[in-house]
């Protein structure tokens, strides 16, 4: 009951007629972290970091269990909710860190992995393939073997659900099961149009019993933070930074009532720097938190719908820009292919020209030279008419090097 009262307080204070969504976004983009990030351990493990400018603070980093101190680093942080519930916010594994990733899943007994990116986006790898390929039942990652259990399920449009079993190959009797939720259409620096898919996955993950859910995108800050941020306000909803932002936000609002959404982002960034990366994700986080509060019993009003309209307008423009960019990229590829085809055609034409016989005049020169050499050798009398013809040909012929004179058959015609 107290949470619902505080949620109503928040909506009454935030959703006022004077609310300017675009100003709110400008304020979000102007946010600067007031916390000095200390990430000394990360400096020793640059090869395990996908992006050099995404920090993994020592104070909240996940320390890999049963590993020596010089090999216990993974680019992941604990995100602690107001009610004590914890998520792991992580970067998408690199090829070099897939074993570390499964070690973390296995030792922390995580019951869910929420993947908010695709393996490749815009021809750029966003995450190493850390699960078996579609046509394979199992796959090894260092000492761990991951086996697919059952069939892939489309939880809803754009979200795939897999179940995997992981174990150490030398200890096959000790097995751990984890469910994998894959958002295949939530692209980098963007967010879904509606909250439906996020809220459904959040609810499913929160109902699972066991270790902390692992939420990751590519860097582990934008889409991940948005998800977790939405989970904060209610005890039974879920998150990673966009994802975790929802859970964090709903729990914080449920406890304190009036709260500036910008403060939610500041607090989350103390745990995972740069959490909730883009203005799209920030607005989407607010929409998801609001939808959760409406499900709780907060009345929906026109101001709530206005901010949704602004968000949809922004996303439509972003989609248009993305489509135009892809169109230019495809056109550039077609031009590149056409250019290569032209080059091949020119090469073929050039090879035909290079294969033509010596010009007749050079052949005549070669014959006359051979005749002259033969006459000198035999000591035969000279034919004056033939000598005159030879002189005329030599005058009009291109100048030949001494080597060309003696081996004319090795050279192509001069153009």
From TrEMBL:
A Pfam family it matches: Y_phosphatase
UniProt-annotated stretches for the region Disordered: 319-415
Annotated Basic and acidic residues bias: 319-351, 372-394, 402-415
InterPro entries reported in the protein's UniProt record: Oocyte-zygote_transition_reg (IPR052782), Prot-tyrosine_phosphatase-like (IPR029021), PTP_cat (IPR000242), Tyr_Pase_AS (IPR016130), Tyr_Pase_cat (IPR003595), Tyr_Pase_dom (IPR000387)
Domain Tyrosine-protein phosphatase: 48-292
Gene Ontology molecular function: protein tyrosine phosphatase activity
Record domain Tyrosine specific protein phosphatases: where: 196-283
Matches recorded under PROSITE patterns: TYR_PHOSPHATASE_1, TYR_PHOSPHATASE_2, TYR_PHOSPHATASE_PTP
PANTHER family found in the cross-reference section: PROTEIN-TYROSINE PHOSPHATASE-RELATED, TYROSINE-PROTEIN PHOSPHATASE-RELATED
Protein name (database record): Protein-tyrosine-phosphatase
